[in-house]
Amino acid sequence: MGDSKSDVLQGTLDLMVLKTLEAMGPLHGYGIARRIEQVSGDTLTLNQGTIYPALLRLEQRGWVKAEWGMSESNRRAKYYSLTRPGRKQIESETENWERIAATMARFLAPSN
Amino acid sequence: MKERSSERIRTAISRLFGHARGASLDRDLDEELRSHLAFATEENLRRGMSQREARMAALRSFGNLTQTREHYRQQRGMPMLEQILADLRFGFRQLRRSPGFAITAILTLALGVGANTAIFTLIDSILLRPLPFPQQDRLVTLSADGFFPKGWIRALQQNSRSFESLAAYGLNAESNITQNGNSERVFGTQVTVNFLDTLGIHPEIGAFFSKENAIKGQDNVVILSHGYWQTRFAASPSIVGQTLRVDGISRRIIGIMPEGVQFPYNDTHFVVPAAFKGGDATDPWLGYDLRGLGRLRDGVTPAAARAELLRLHPTLLTLFPWRMPDIWASDTEVTPLLDSVVGDTRPKLLLLFAAVGLVLLIACANVANLMLAKAASREREMAIRGALGASGSRIVSQLLVESVLIGICAGAAGLGLAFLSLRGLIIALPADTPRLAGVGLHWHVFLFAGIASVLTGVLFGLVPALRMASPHLQQTLRSGSLSVIGKGVNFRVSRALVVGQIALSVVVITVAGLLLHSLYGLSHVNPGFNTGHIVTAEVSLDSTACKQAGHCQNFFQDLVRTTGNLSGIQSSALASTLPMAGDENFYTYDAEGHPRESREGAKIAAGRTVSSSYFALIGVRLIRGRLLNESDQTGVSRAIVISQHMAHALWPKDDAIGKHLESVEDEPTPALFDAKKGSIVVGVVSDTHHDNLKSGFGDEVYLPLTPAREQSSMTILLRSQLPASQVAPTLRRAVAALDPSAPVTRVRTLDEVVASSVSSTRALTLLLLGFGALAVAVGAVGVYSLIAYIVNWRTREIGIRLALGASRWGILALIFRQSLLLSVAGSFIGLTAALASARLLRSFLFEVHPLDPVTFCAVPLLMLLLAVLAAWIPARRAASIDPMQALRSE
């Protein structure tokens, strides 16, 4: 594992999944995992399997819903999509993250 | 991400479902993961990898498949629940592996839980379950020392504001019900017309009383109980509107009570209306035979209602057409209906409940000791678990699940035992126990058994679990096997548990012993009359038969004469009531030399109208003067006989013979004593315990069977060497010869009458003795198993002692001393506890001091004897140990 890659921070995966679904619409688990890897520019080490407990967690909270459907390659797959509370959750979590990121940035900025 | 509470609930629910649908969700996940890998493989193939490479790469980038599944399952289900289920499975395997332990533990506890569940069933059915009336908590009874006339009830109805509705009911009286020429004796009572409506019940069919039924002349109606309607009229609806002869009066059946109503009395089968004679000012105030039943207004407490009644009392007293004594009805109590139905059964049931509670504790201690013994052999297992990283709380919870499992098995078995023993228990209780017919297993009982068994499991599991959770890890793992004396096992806790068991058993049997001593005392009380070889029975004419003056008197005089001459019958006598039968008549009187003001109450004695042969037959001795004779029955002599106790109380210095008494019923105006009209005391006779064996001697008056005192129903007493079963048909034939329609009921010996007067004490004592025996048996098993275990554990030590020259007697003494010490300590603590609680028992005891020396000496002796018995087998084994074998065995 290269030094340039980092582990997914606890709690960030959920927001990534939600954001992916917001951008892409209904998507199956593999699609979500690939999309996160692509967006992060392959800087994250994502064991694709970890996406499934995360998806279940989001489903249990009512932020996403899951349905079995058919892919373009005619394969049965479980498709996840955002629910209305899920969209709201993205808003509030995004705000939250921006605040944390800004705070962190201030800490990390070279002191003068 | 933070969860809001609503989301937390959502998560919990979906987890719960996730748990329940485990298998199908597992398939779901597997399919999803398969499709994931297929997508990845497809993409890799497109990139030009070989089939094998593509699949491997897909798996690699997926990560650990098993771990993903495990995480997913954890997220989906309830880890706690799964852990408990795993513990349960493990617990079951543990129990199956040591069936001897499991069966002993479960049986011991099942006895405890079963006894508790059975007694709780009684408590639930008798004390706790609401009566079958709507808003029954607002129903109250109004009672005083004596009964009310119907005018008084009417006055309360008109003036009191505490009640939504106020009614009254009469005495439980047997009547002749005649249909098609056949008479049978049936219990019924008279009630005010609003009585059934006050209860809040509705007729099964037909109607209840209307207001008009309270007027004399329109009161010839009757309402039957559901049970009587079913047994006697096969539940035929066409019975409504037909007529029935009740005590010679034709009454129209207007309705049937709903099922389950056993009120006012357990055996009330019909009710008739209490009616007022129109235009008669004194009629409402005659006949003191009613008790009040009220439905309180919303928010009014029984105490508030009572206060109001007492406030009204002086004003309402003036409504009587004559001056009533001030104290009359001034002691009126307002009691919640359920309390007055239950009566004095409550303390008895609670006493039994306390006793079985102690039995359960003893059983718990026993099983805790078994667990401890077993724990010793599992010490290494627990140490290894600890070494592998199981936390203390994890081990405690696993052990607790095991013990709760035993508790639940025992609870199920105990519930079965309770169910099986319930019938026997109902038979053991005296027949007059209230609400006995409604005793059954309701959901409360199942809830109780469930809670009791889980609590029991926690109770006996906690001590061993806590001890096991903190083993000295390294020590245990290091020590290979047994050393000289088993180390690591400390018998201190076990000893304390056994001492506790003995102490609790001592408490239970001390209580049982005190009651037994009371019962023994009661059975040796001389009632003051002969009870052997006397058969009694009630013979009843229609109550209207006496309207024809002299008819009843002639009938009974003929009856006593003819029965006295029958073969096998030595003598025959009549009495209005039997002593100790619980239905005394009161003789309210004024006595010569005891003037009173009209506001004072008159004197009261037990009055018994008897034939002249009564005294000789029952063995009441003449002390002064003469007995009643045949000629007194004309009424001319105005003769009466009184008891010695009464003579002494009334005229301590003078001779009672020739003194006058006058019944207040014969006084033209109350408290106006007229010696010329009063009865004359002609004799003084020996005292009897006429009320019950517990009460002291009271005032008794014997009255001759004069025309003025004739009555439709009397008790006949026959002295005969023949058994009751042979006397009864002879008597029935004799009665039928005089009047074929007169029923003969309640045939029993006088011995039975006296015995049944102490039946409730006897039942309580027997049940307590049974539970005491159970407690002692379980306690003794506890002592035995501990001693046996200690002997087993010390085999090597004893072997060494013997090898070094200790005598076998010395070893025997060693073991017995262990057992006796436990017993002495337990008895001491138990007796101290019994001493402290004995005062609570005072009301249950008869002529036995709560600190009765007999009981308090017998109990510890019994416990010492048991200690010797329990140690017998282990001690003999210890003494017969072969030193060579004991030392060789590792």
TrEMBL record, chain A:
Domain of life, source organism? Bacteria
Q: Which SUPFAM superfamilies match?
A: Winged helix' DNA-binding domain
Annotated ranges, domain Transcription regulator PadR N-terminal? 17-91
Q: InterPro entries given for it?
A: Metal_resp_DNA-bind_regulator, Tscrpt_reg_PadR_acidobac-type, Tscrpt_reg_PadR_N, WH-like_DNA-bd_sf, WH_DNA-bd_sf
What is the protein's given name?
PadR family transcriptional regulator
Q: Which organism is it from?
A: Acidicapsa dinghuensis
TrEMBL record, chain B:
Its transmembrane ranges are 101-123, 349-372, 404-429, 441-463, 496-520, 766-791, 822-841, 853-875
Q: Which coarse location class describes where this protein primarily resides?
A: membrane
Organism in which the protein naturally occurs: Acidicapsa dinghuensis
Record-stated family: Belongs to the ABC-4 integral membrane protein family.
The yes or no answer to whether the keyword tRNA-binding is present is no
Location in the cell reads: Cell membrane
Q: State if Membrane is listed as a keyword.
A: yes
Question: Where does the ABC3 transporter permease C-terminal domain start and stop, copy by copy?
Answer: 354-470, 771-883
The annotated topology with respect to the bilayer is: Multi-pass membrane protein
Under what name is this protein listed?
A: ADOP family duplicated permease
* Pfam families attached to this UniProt entry: FtsX, MacB_PCD
Keywords of the record, alphabetical order, are: Cell membrane, Membrane, Transmembrane, Transmembrane helix
Domain MacB-like periplasmic core, by residue range, is 104-310, 605-731
